[in-house]
Amino acid sequence: MQSTFRSLFYSFSRRPVSYTKCKLLVMSVEKKMNSRKIIGTHDGKFHCDEVLACAMLKLLPQYADATVKRTRNPTILDTCDIVVDVGGVFDPSVHRYDHHQRAFQESFSSLKPGFPWVTRLSSAGLVYVHFGQEIISQLLAISIESELVQETYKRVYEGFIEEIDAIDNGISTHDGPARYKITTSLSSRIGNLNSKWNEIETDEDVSTKFNKGMELAKEEFLDKINYFSKCWWPARKLVVNAIEGRFSVDESGQIIELENGGCPWKEHFFELEKKMGLNVADKQILYCMFPDTSGSWRIQGVPLSSHSFELRKALPDQWRGLRDKELDKMCGIDGCVFIHASGFIGGHSTREGALEMGRKALAIAS
């Protein structure tokens, strides 16, 4: 300590800085360093869940300057302010968030009754469930109680965090053999940062890669919050308007018109349809029409659910795969552009033409 004071004192020798003032400066710096919080997680091979958990915590003011300590030593972990993915303890009251213990079976739904997600949580899910609303509130600079924060909180879990939880816990997206492999997920990309079996790396090399993983995770997490809060949520009003105005589009009420075709509408549509009591089989909304970026119009079949490729009523089979004049002749409407081979979407050069395609499709039996 004395040598530190002297070196600082002599470094300021060109200025009239007293030894006492220099000593106070060092003590102030040391106090600040000692007050930095420590996030504990395990060493060795790292995974997406604890990398993301650490990245999320560092978005909070209280952990923004925290250091990440990677160890399995329980004595060292006991000195950490918060511990994720190691330690064998889940206890939010002392900021311990491990999920590996045999008795652990927590899900979003079990920790927050009323929410639908039952996937077993990883350390990422645990941190998100407990701190996610606070993080989003901080990032959006609005009240934690606001509808936007609450909706974003739900959507980011469903559209991002749950995937990390499931992968870390070995839960497949499907029953039976997979048709293809997904190797470009965030979990895969972070996992690929780990040392290869035939590489020799120092602790510093591993720390650098862990930090790179945190940057990747943070960037993707922030991108999801940005999307759901600034793109997805504002689209809701457009979908409300489309549903409420459907009878002014067509007297059947089975065709809706969106003001902007680029907006994410499906999740809002199914939520609002259920909320409004409109999902009655004999009068379901079957088609959605909207302008595209080229100035043409599209007519699209409504799927069975927001994530389904199956449709309530596809565009007629005899139209599928046709284009331009050939399609004009088949459906009896001039100005047609195309019908996708699966019948899920078609195009016309005008709004009126797209609407007429929808009306004719309604009249043709499936």
The quaternary state of the protein chains shown equals: single chain
Structural shape = elongated
Number of helices: 14
Low-confidence regions: 1-6, 27-31
> Tally of extended strands?
10
Radius of gyration: 28 Å
* Beta-strand content bin: 5-15%
Strand order of the largest sheet: 2-1-3-5-4
- Along the chain, the helix and strand elements come as HHEHEHEEEHHHHHHHEHEEHEEH
Number of domains: 3
Determine the structural class based on helices, strands and strand pairing: alpha/beta
**What percent of residues adopt helix (DSSP H or I)?**
40-55%
Protein architecture, described:
- This protein is α/β, with parallel strands linked by helices.
- It has three domains: 2-34; 38-195 and 202-232, no CATH class; 235-363.
- The protein has helices at residues 2-11, 19-34, 48-57, 74-77, 108-111, 123-140, 147-168, 186-191, 203-232, 235-244, 246-249, 266-275, 324-331, 351-363; strands spanning 38-41, 67-70, 82-84, 90-91, 96-97, 255-257, 287-291, 297-301, 336-339, 345-348.
Concise synopsis of the structure shown:
The chain is α/β, with parallel strands linked by helices. The protein has helices at residues 2-11, 19-34, 48-57, 74-77, 108-111, 123-140, 147-168, 186-191, 203-232, 235-244, 246-249, 266-275, 324-331, 351-363; strands at 38-41, 67-70, 82-84, 90-91, 96-97, 255-257, 287-291, 297-301, 336-339, 345-348.
